[in-house]
Amino acid sequence: MNVTPRELSITVLGTDSCTPAKGANTASFVVDRRVAVDTGWYFTDRLLACGINPLDIEAVVFTHCHHDHIMGLPQLIFYYGITGAKRPQRPLRIYGPAGEIARVVGDAQRFLQFDRYPELRFAIEVTDLRGGAELAICGLRVRTCSARHSVPGLCYRFENAAGASVVFSGDTAFNPDLIELARGAGLLVHEASYGAQSVRHDERWGHCGAPDAAEVARLAAVARLAIVHCADERREEALATAKATFAASFAPGQLEWIKVPCND
Q: Which of 50, 68, 79, 115 has a CA that sits 20 to 30 A from residue 42's CA?
């Protein structure tokens, strides 16, 4: 896919729910072929299927550390480790919720038995993030807000120098802070775990339905809304309810590429 400097590219590695299904990957994405957002259970396989060399992933940002969002991390770390001299002479940079992400990375290294197989070791830099963070990742401006979820989580906004922007909700209940973070974005990628059902105040589990995602998109005045993290059998009805509130809604397919232009 040809992308100009005035655009962002989003590679959709998965859109499904938290329960593994045949041929389906949970919600995970790549921005500009370099920055991964969450790592579903088929993460490395789906990178290769999309023609992305896993070694080209320079950074991974995690919205939160529930299993379905981190399962692919050991795969990526192993791929880096097993390639030896072929791997880049730079660290793999990993970002995620403060107090959570360092433990997850350490657990992945222990799972891969780095102490027993030192040849797999390479440099990994882990950065704790909180809501309200502003930083640069791979030349992109990144901002965060806190998610409303059952564990610490973050929503992310990525913006390039031309102003093209994409926002990822991660897992969250209806979130006024996300509305502000997403204000005027070219694309909002929002979870719809409850399908067509509206669950405006899910304080126990911290999830949304498609109508809630559409309301966030409408209030934030984004250009487009991508409905994700929804079981395949519920997706058609969920999309219909989203479109009733926000017409520029769509449900991306797995292994799909999305161009996000700047808002002139």
A: 115
Q: Is residue 1 part of a domain?
A: no
Residues 6+ apart with CB under 8 A from 201: 173, 174
- Helix boundaries (H) for the chain: 43-49, 67-70, 73-82, 101-111, 176-181, 210-220, 232-245
Residue 209 in contact with residue 195, Cβ under 8 Å? Answer: yes
Q: Which residue blocks in 19-163 are alpha helix, DSSP H? A: 43-49, 67-70, 73-82, 101-111
Assess if residue 23 is contained within a domain. yes
With respect to residue 171, please indicate whether it lies within any of the assigned structural domains.
yes
The residue segments making up the domain with residue 192 are: 7-261
Distance of CA 236 to the CA centre of its chain: 22
Whether the pLDDT of residue 259 is over 80: the answer is yes
Evaluate the CA torsion angle 239, 240, 242, 246 in order and state its sign.
Answer: positive
Tokens standing for 177?
């802070």
Tell me whether residue 2 is in a domain: no
Give 3-state DSSP helix, strand, coil % of the chain, rounded to 5: 25, 25, 45
- CA–CA separation, 199 vs 212, rounded Å? 7
For residue 183, name the pLDDT band (cuts at 50, 70, 90). Answer: very high
pLDDT digits (tens, 9 = 90+) for 100-139: 999 999 999 999 999 999 999 999 999 999 999 999 999 9
Rounded-to-integer distance, Cα 176 and Cα 7, Å: 27
Q: What CATH code is carried by the domain that includes residue 169?
A: 3.60.15.10
